[in-house]
Amino acid sequence: MRLTILGGGGFRVPLVYGALLGDRGEGRVTEVVLHDLDGRRLSAVTRVLAEQAARVPDAPAVTATTDLDEALRGADFVFSAIRVGGLEGRANDERVALAEGVLGQETVGAGGIAYGLRTVPVAVDIARRVARLAPDAWVINFTNPAGLVTEAMSRHLGDRVIGICDSPVGLGRRIARVLGANPNEAWIDYVGLNHLGWVRGLKIAGRDELPRLLADPDLLGSFEEGKLFGVDWLQSLGAIPNEYLHYYYFNREAVRAYQQAEKTRGAFLADQQAHFYDEVGDPGVKALDAWDRTRAEREATYMSENRETAGAGERDADDLSGGYEKVALALMRAIARDERTTLILNVRNRRTLSVLDDDAVIEVPCLVDANGAHPVAVAPLPGHATGLVCSVKAVEREVLAAAESGARTTAVKAFALHPLVDSVGVARRLVEGYTAVHPGLAYLK
After folding, report:
1. Can you tell me the distance from the alpha carbon of 396 to that of 389, in angstroms, rounded to the nearest whole number?
2. Cα Rg, the chain, nearest whole Å
3. Over its length of 445 residues, how does the chain's per-residue pLDDT go in tens digits?
4. At a CB cut-off of 8 Å and minimum separation 6, what does 283 contact?
5. Cα–Cα distance list, 221 to 190, 234, 245, 293, 303 (Å)
6. Burial level of 283, CB count in 10 A (0-12/13-18/19+)?
7. What would you measure as the largest C-alpha separation in the chain, in angstroms?
8. Alpha carbon distance 227, 95 (integer Å)
9. CA 148 to CA 153: how far, in whole Å?
10. Nearest to 9 by CA among 48, 62, 45
11. Helix, strand or coil for residue 124?
12. What global pTM score does this model have?
């Protein structure tokens, strides 16, 4: 089975390959094709993968190419993890937004809109090429903003594109762990959009254990989200929000922390990864060791400004191991081998949430089999969550409309309607600022 990874020179590709190395069953991936526009990054990541595979018998063969069509032909699965504009683009997204006093995070608020505006046209082109060159392939999208990009691609690929994210997986795992349960045996009632969802229940042996957690202040305050949001707020919500909702519930504090930080997250990662790729360019350096060191630092500093604002302290060691690669592998296994499983995924709504139309991409538990991912019926969202979900989905639709039409006024509308951008004037200045620094937004007229 052939897996094509778009963004194959990306830093997290070895996580995916590492998961493949541990898969020894029938119908496993035997060939991995890395595609990236940057040959230097491709070479560096290929070195890391070669060292990973050195002592693994029958490791999946790895090839690399800068030719997109060549990479897509013959693919059974396409894993999309591209970053349009690179980390420099992410740093610019943050800088332009923070100068206007609004959030520049890569998936939330102004930064997420800017990232979406320059990513959607590229993602749509990829979707059209997949439909033409590999019509039987399944596309697994991890490209951010994951829900928005998955919805853009679904307009051309239908249900053959499925979005994944490691945030819900990590959240469910932490809740199960603090309750003393096996995460693999827990049913997680999670619903929302990508980076905008809530755990409303966690069933173990048919019994919902979340009320027990919410009623115990010591237990509730003992893990990441309890420290991040505070016990009182979680008890008020009656649910456990995805960590990215910290940007909504504590927006002023988050913006202030990012403005005061020595570097934005994008700037930090740009410098860190530049050092990594330079280091691995030296043939005398052990590429896998350099990658491990860099990854450990990256994971330890994840959302550090938010945790500092909340006084949450350092991340727990158990939360530093990632997770999206495990979701990707489980998804591929379920489809390729009909190994039925349940995963939290980004898929078309169909009739799952009545407040959204059938084509809206949402993030919910899905039953997965050889025919793809099927969203599980969920209870209606509470009022406070409904408002946010509908508001942000409306913004996503304006982003898709702007990307399709190239209308600058529609892009302004997308920014102005977002709940974390409080002014049409700010929205106009954001569009001016982003088009000035991003060549990929030249299409907005």
Report:
1. 10
2. 21
3. 999 999 999 999 999 999 999 998 788 999 999 999 999 999 999 999 999 999 899 999 999 999 999 999 999 999 999 999 999 999 999 999 999 999 999 999 999 999 999 999 999 999 999 999 999 999 999 999 999 999 999 999 999 999 999 999 999 999 999 999 999 899 999 999 999 999 999 999 999 999 999 999 999 999 999 999 999 999 999 999 999 999 999 999 999 999 999 899 999 999 999 999 999 999 999 999 999 999 998 888 877 677 566 676 665 655 545 578 999 999 999 999 999 999 999 999 999 999 999 999 999 999 999 999 999 988 899 999 999 999 999 999 999 999 999 999 999 999 999 999 989 999 999 999 999 999 999 999 9
4. none
5. 20, 10, 17, 30, 18
6. exposed
7. 60
8. 28
9. 9
10. 45
11. helix
12. 0.94
Give Cα 413 to chain centroid, integer Å. 24
The 3-state DSSP composition of the chain as helix, strand, coil percent (nearest 5) reads 55, 15, 30
Both ends of the chain: CA-CA distance in Å?
A: 43
CA dist 113 and 46 (Å) reads: 32
Q: Which residues contact 262 (CB under 8 A, 6 or more apart)?
A: none
- Nearest residue to 91 (alpha-carbon basis) of 271, 343, 350, 357: 271
Helix and strand counts by DSSP (H, E) for the chain: 20, 13
Question: For the residues of 168-195, what is the DSSP string, one character each?
Answer: HHHHHHHHHHHTT--GGGEEEEEEEETT
Nearest Cα residue to 435 out of 427, 424, 444: 444
- Residue 368, CA distances (Å) to 207, 338, 374 in order: 23, 8, 6
Sign of CA dihedral 352, 357, 362, 367: positive
Taking the C-alpha atoms of residue 75 and residue 77, their distance in angstroms, rounded to an integer, is: 5
User: What are the residue ranges of helices labelled H in 314-382?
Assistant: 324-337
Q: CB within 8 A of 69, min separation 6: which ones?
A: 129, 133
Return the structure tokens found at 252: 């002023």
Distance of CA 357 to the CA centre of its chain: 22
- List Cα–Cα distances, 428 to 107, 121, 444, in angstroms: 19, 21, 13
Token look-up 């302290």 returns 313
